[in-house]
Amino acid sequence: MEILVGIVIVNYKTADLTIECLRSLNNERVLNCFRVIVVDNDSQDGSFQKISLAIEAEGWVDWAKVQSSGFNGGFSFGNNFAIRQFIKEKKAPEFIYLLNPDTVVMPYAIKSLVLFLLDHPKVGIVGSRLEDPDGTPQCSSFRFHTLLSELESSLRFGPISRLLSRWRIAPKIEDDTIITDWVAGASMLIRSDVFADIGLMDEDYFLYFEETDFCLQAKRKGWECWYIPSSRVVHFVGQSTGIISGNEDRPRRPSYWFEARQHYFLKNHGLFYTILADLTWGIGFLIWRLRRIIQRKPDTDPKNMLVDFWKNSIFFNLLDGKHKS
């Protein structure tokens, strides 16, 4: 029995990357039965036309198409635009695969995810091992954000980090298939029943934290999330978003990152917890910055991170009346 997979790729001014991603998917056609909707999120740079021409020229029209969303509403908005179409079809896909345009799917990557979901009916979400072009693994499975994870990530003090290792958001990269809290949305296969159970992705997130939130809602409904390292996907980190960890240029963190983080905590933990989370991270990061100066450690943080964090914190939003209760 063929299992149909609906694949969603959200493009925003990354036409060349999207075309290469589609080319890697074409190689997987012999192993999988899938259809692809590329959603162009109002790129206004000729992306729609370029991708359309490539699909026609390469002979991919039987399984891939590009559609314009007409509006850049963010990652969740773009994915939902295609997911709605898939789940309303007469022959709706059993699984929905969210795939970044800045990826290349390696042989058997999709099949590994599909087979795992088929063998494990309680699992609702699975994610791939993302890796650099040279095969170096990227962290692709994570823990949910908590007060303790905020302290560990901001303070960056060895003894404290070891004490709080169970709450570290990005744990040690595993070579084994493991259950996890959430997986990277760059390559994430979702059972269609999960959407029926919890709804679509939250469009109040523009970019970042949306897959974290989605996996949390699924877990609260009893769905498991697993990391499948046998599914390998090359990920050109930051090429579709511009945010690259450790970037020597240290670009400032965009406001939508702070907005997404705050929305995640408010939605899932409430106002008091969000206040504590911001206070914990802000004080921890301030201590780290002072220690970095004293110990003359290299500065790898985004520019103006401390100021930008406090300006976008729940405290300033409360003062400005921006917080929605």
CATH topology annotation of the largest domain: Spore Coat Polysaccharide Biosynthesis Protein SpsA, Chain A
- Number of domain units: 2
CATH architecture annotation of the largest domain: Alpha-Beta Complex
Shape: globular
Distance between the termini: 49 Å
Radius of gyration, CA atoms, in whole angstroms:
20 Å
Whole-number average pLDDT? 94
Low-confidence stretches: none
Order of helices and strands: EHEHEHEEHEEHHEEEHHEHHH
Q: Specify the CATH class of the largest domain.
A: Alpha Beta
Helix/strand/pairing category:
alpha/beta
Helix content: 40-55%
Continuous helix count? 11
Number of separate strands:
11
Can you summarize the main beta sheet? 9 strands, mixed
Strand content: 15-25%
Task: Characterize the structure shown.
The protein is α/β, with parallel strands linked by helices and 325 residues long. It has two domains: 4-138 and 173-235, Spore Coat Polysaccharide Biosynthesis Protein SpsA, Chain A (Alpha-Beta Complex), CATH 3.90.550; 255-320. Helices cover 42% and strands 19% of the residues. It is built from eleven helices and eleven strands. α2 (47-57) links the parallel β2 and β3. α1 runs parallel beside α2 (47-57), α5 packs across α9 and α9 packs across α10. The longest helix is centred in the last third of the chain and has 41 residues, at 255-295. The chain is globular and about 60 Å long.
What's this, in brief?
The chain is an alpha/beta fold and 325 residues long.
Identify the notable features of this structure and list them briefly.
nine-stranded mixed sheet, Spore Coat Polysaccharide Biosynthesis Protein SpsA, Chain A, 11 helices, single chain, two-stranded antiparallel ribbon, globular, 325 residues, 19% strand, alpha/beta
